[in-house]
Each structure stands twice: as C-alpha cells, then as structure tokens.
Design brief:
Structural class: mainly beta
Number of strands: 49
C-alpha cells in the first residue's frame, strides 16, 4: 500500500522579505567572533553581556535564558539593570543567517545572595522556619539516595533536600527562578511518626516548568508546625548547576483549590474525539460543606467560550484543534491552573491512524525517564508518548508551540530505508525555521546529536522545507523553532523517497479563481490529503482538489522588518496588480491593485506575522488601486491582503 503524502497547505502566504545580495553557493552557517562570558554580580548591579557574529549575512541575534528565547533581546548586547537573584541563569545566543543557525556556549550569571546549604541526604536536610527567603546553592555534585523518589517523574539525578517548618498556616509558594538549568521542584510530607525514611514520603505537589525559562514553581496549603520536605532536582539526568530557591507564606481567607487529577494529553487521528477531564478538591468550610468550584478551559492561552465544566470534549478534531489546553479553577478564594495538556494530531498511516508519538518541547522528553510518582492530592497526567521515534514512509504531525515552556519543539523520525527524505513545515500558521540532526533514538542532550542542516525561512515564505539523503535505521531529529519569539500552530510533514511528493504549483496557477482545481504531481492512484487553513477539505483524497469559495485566504504579505521589501519570486497574488512595497526615507509605501471582483478586500497590518491584524484600508468591489504610506516605527510591520475582516 502506498503511503499518504500530506501536501503543503492551500493557504497562500506571499512574503516579501529582505532581499539578500548574491551569495556564493559555498556560504557556511554563521560563526561567533566573541561570545558572552560568565559573570558574578551583587544585587542592584548593572551588567552587560556581549556577543559578535560573523559569516555571510544578514545576521540576526536572539538571546536565550536557560535555552528559552528572551522577548525583544535581539542585539549584540544584553543589558541587565538592577539585577536580582532571579536574573541569574545560563545566557546564550542563537546566531542566524540565511545559511543556518549557530548557538554559543552559555554564559552563567550568578547574583550573590544568602547560601541555602541543602543536602543530598534527606536525614541531613537543613531546617528552615522563616516564612520567606531567597537562597543560593548548587546541585552539580549531588547524587540520589537509594529509593530516591523520581521527582515529578522527570528522571533527575542531582537532588538536594531541605526541611521547612512554617510557624503559621497559609498558602506557600516555592519557585526556582534565577537557577541556571531546567529545574524540578517537589514537596513531600512524612505521615509516619518516628524515624524518617525516604520510602515513607508522601508527595504534596511537584512541578517542572510552571516558572519562566524552564524553572519550577509550586503552591500548596501549608499548616503551622507541619514538616515539608522540599526537593530541588533537574529535568533529566544531566540537568544541574546553580540553584536559586525562593519561598514565601501568605495568610488566606480560604484554602487553595487542589487539582486531584490533571487533564490527560492526547495524540489523535484526524476526525477523532478526545475528552479532557479534571478532578478538583475546592476545600470545605467550618461546617464541612464544600466550597463551590468554577472552571474555565483555555487553549494556547485563549479562553474557550462556554467551556466552564470539569470536562472538555472535542469531536471530529482537525489540525486547528491542536493546542495546549489548561483549565483554571476557582473556589471563591483562589485560582489555580492545571498542568498543560496537549492535543496533537497525527496522520502517519495509510488507514489514517495516529502513532503514539509527540512533538516535545525539550529534547529529553523524547525518552521515558521513569515512572512518575503520583503525588497524593496532585496526581500528574502520564504523557505516555515520545519514547520512540515515528516510523512510516510519510506523514504529518500537527501541534502548537504557543503557551509552552519554549518556542521550539522536537520531533524524531526513524528512517526505514535509504533514500531522500523531505521535511517541511509548510502549512504552519507562524514564521518558523527548523534544524535537522541525527543521533541515537534515546537522545537526551543536543550534545549527542550531529547537526545536518538548518532550513531557514527563505525571505519569501513563513515556513521552511529541506531534504537529506536518509540512511536506514538512523533516527533524525527536527527542531522546529519560531523566528524571533513567534509561536503558533505548527505543521510538520515528512516523506521518504519524495520524488512523488507534492511540489510547488507553477506561479500564478493557484487560487486564481474561486473553485479552481489544484493539481499536484502525484501519479494516480497515490492519495493526497488536502487542507486549507489547517482544516481538512471534505471529500475523497486524490491528486486534484477543488477549493471551497474563497472566504478567509490571505493573498499577500509585505515584510518591512529588515528595512527592505522585495517581491515574491515563487507565488503571485490572485489580484490583477497584486501588492508591493517600497521603503524610502523612513517610510514604507504600499502599492495595491484594483478590486475588480464582487468582494470586499481588506488591507491589514501587524507587528507580527502571526497577528493580531488591524484593517488600514478597505477596498469595496470596483475600487481602484492606490498607495498607502506609513512611517516605519520600531522594527517594522507586516502588511497583507485578506478577504476576512479581523
């Protein structure tokens, strides 16, 4: 049976990006001339980290903290003003050019504060009774004890312990912001009177990435005089370094609601059904009556209308449903949020079924690091995915990089034969690039991988594609990342022996008129699954598809972010004269063609390729062409045609 090939999206994005000077074909990825250095500072100091890159340009810089992009940090210098312990961490830079991405060795920043002096032996854990504190430690030399809990199920191998005995009751918050690695926090009690044994611990709560920059944060109802054993570890066996641990205790009129059962994650086939469920203990009043609980589900940070019960059911799921789902729970006193539960959609088999694999937001999550210890009163969901790479001659995986710990995602593919392998993110809803690596199927560190090629957005489109000569039984890793800090719904497709895969239609031949046929290069009876705007087009799969009436397609995009504007060399607009742009004297002039069809056209602008978009000009049917001139502010804007008023 021949494999199903997922084509590029019918949605047309005409990106007019920075026009690059002719560059020799032997141009190499960019390189670093200088890199940032380790720094130690006192609270209140001002410090600056610097970097300089080289190679064929244009070059762009993106600073990262603990491997997570810092919004707006895109220069050669990163100034940190009035630093505090929470500004600590591992700072690095992604240096990008049209020919690849290079990352420098992280520079460790430490802001000095009181030592914490935790212990890797539970019975030697220091005791603290203060209601608030900020302390520093380092777990690089810590080792687990026999019987050590697998904290939050993340497989850490460098745990440190402390004992906290609060003098009053309230809501306790512990967080690790400022630490220099991917942290895990776990809190336990010992219900057994007498000697303390690690096997007797009962988990109260645990967390991996609720804090910024891959740091951890937990909250729980603390009772005066109780013993709370707090463990700080890393995510995976290699994560270790400087720890910044902060905690506080505040009194409250009522208890914090407790999520007893977190919502599960799903990888579903197209058209399948899923149900997110959550169980909550909202606490009781003095008469033993439970406090009423309210719910609000969100996907990728956006509230879902009328999703206000303990269960969220989705029928006939489509790529547009892929996302990261959470529920906010309120008991009248406090609000807590569930751990994100992803819905990813995969089409990887001729029968349309989905393999239990996932795009993960950290490379180490592809390996099952152990069975999570379900914390009493805070049961975690068990992902159950990602322990092996996907197989199959072709397929497509839909996921979201919004509301995730990083703006990147990893996906692994096992080559089942020798030959060409095509990988593409075409059809994604945000500006992105990706890098391909090869390595062992159980890789947990990028140091175990061999970098093969970077597929960078080519200046004309928002997405990327590349191909390599694959070797049978080798695992390939695709790291998909947003350009800058862009994120959104991603489409990752792959095909082996792609000589029969979908190819770009000739310029001007797509979306020329409503109802036009779209033809790919597959020879019957191969099947192609067509979609528009990440929604599958109903009907039989085949080499031709008829587009529904044009309602929400985007026809042209002008990008002034790099101080230049050029014409797309692949696609053409559906309008007679299309849209172009020119930059002069700090202004951008948009030239648009007439609207000769019976429809309304909106010219819109946004500071991000992912939106939100605002209408700056409305062209009614029969309106003539013209120009729009705006001053370029900040980094620039994106401009587009659309048939939908946002």
């Amino acid at each position: 049976m021949k494999a199903i090939v997922q084509p590029r999206s019918i949605q047309v994005l005409v990106l007019l990006g920075a026009l690059l000077a002719a560059t020799p074909c032997y141009a190499q990825p960019p390189f670093f001339i200088t890199v940032p250095t380790n720094m130690t500072a006192l609270p209140g100091d001002n410090i600056t980290l610097s970097v300089l890159g080289g190679g064929a340009g244009p070059l762009s810089y993106q600073w990262l903290l603990n491997g997570v992009m810092i919004a707006g940090a895109t220069g050669t210098n990163l100034a940190l003003i009035n630093v505090q312990p929470s500004n600590g961490g591992s700072y690095s830079v992604n240096l990008q050019s049209p020919f690849g991405v290079t990352n420098c060795t992280p520079a460790v920043v430490v802001v000095e504060n009181a030592p914490l002096e935790m212990s890797d032996v539970l019975n030697n854990a220091p005791t603290y009774t203060v209601s608030q504190m900020v302390g520093l430690d380092n777990n690089s030399n810590a080792v687990p004890e026999p019987g050590e809990p697998n904290h939050d199920g993340k497989g850490g191998q460098h745990p440190l312990w402390m004992l906290w005995q609060p003098k009053s009751s309230g809501i306790a918050t512990f967080y690790a912001l400022g630490s220099g690695f991917d942290t895990v926090l776990a809190v336990y009690t010992n219900p057994v009177a007498g000697a303390l044994y690690i096997s007797n611990l009962v988990a109260v709560t645990a967390d991996d990435d609720s804090g910024p920059y891959l740091t951890s944060s937990v909250q729980f109802n603390a009772l005066s005089g109780n013993n709370y054993y707090v463990a700080v570890d890393g995510c995976g066996p290699l994560a270790a370094g400087n720890i910044v641990l902060t905690w506080s205790l505040v009194s409250a009129a009522g208890p914090l609601p407790v999520i007893v059962q977190q919502p599960p994650c799903f990888v579903a086939a197209l058209g399948g059904s899923v149900a997110f469920n959550v169980q909550v203990n909202g606490g009781t009043n003095a008469q033993g009556q439970p406090y009423p609980v309210t719910y609000q589900w969100l996907v990728d940070g956006v509230p879902i209308p009328n999703a206000n019960t303990s269960s969220l059911q989705l029928q006939n799921v489509q790529p547009a449903n892929a996302g990261n789902y959470v529920v906010k729970v309120n008991n009248g006193f406090s609000t807590v949020q569930s751990v994100p539960a992803f819905l990813q959609i995969s089409t990887v088999a001729p029968d349309g079924s989905a393999q239990p694999v996932q795009a993960t937001y950290k490379l180490g999550d592809h390996l099952s690091l152990g069975t999570a210890q379900p914390p009493a009163g805070q049961l975690r969901h068990n992902d159950g995915f990602g322990s092996a790479p996907v197989t199959g001659l072709s397929g497509t995986h839909y996921f979201s990089t919004t509301s995730t710990p990083t703006t990147a995602a990893w996906f692994s593919i096992l080559a089942t034969n020798n030959g060409p392998l095509l990988v593409t993110t075409e059809g994604s809803g945000f500006s992105n690039s990706f890098t391909l690596y090869s390595g062992p199927a159980n890789a947990i560190s990028i140091n175990q991988l061999t970098k093969l090629i970077s597929s960078i957005t080519n200046g004309y489109e928002l997405t990327s594609r590349t191909n390599i000569n694959a070797v049978s039984n080798v695992t390939y890793y695709a790291e998909v990342f947003g350009n800058g800090t862009d994120s959104g719904k991603a489409t990752l497709s792959w095909a082996f022996n792609y000589s029969k895969a979908i190819t770009r239609p000739p310029a001007g031949s797509i979306l020329t008129t409503p109802g036009a046929a779209l033809t790919n290069t597959l020879d019957p009876p191969d099947a192609a699954l067509w979609s528009i705007n990440q929604t599958t087009i109903p009907g039989p799969a085949g080499t031709n598809a008829t587009q529904p009436p044009l309602q929400s397609a985007i026809y042209g995009v002008v990008n002034t972010m790099n101080g230049a504007a050029t014409r797309d060399l692949v696609y053409q607009d559906v309008f007679s004269d299309g849209m172009s742009a020119a930059i002069s004297g700090g202004n951008v002039t948009i030239t648009y063609g007439p609207n000769s069809a019976a429809r309304t056209i909106y010219i819109e602008s946004s500071t991000s390729a992912a939106g939100p978009w605002s209408v700056i000009k409305t062209l009614s049917s029969g309106a003539g062409g013209g120009t729009i001139t705006e001053a370029i502010s900040g980094s620039g804007k994106f401009y587009r045609y659309s048939l939908t008023n946002p």
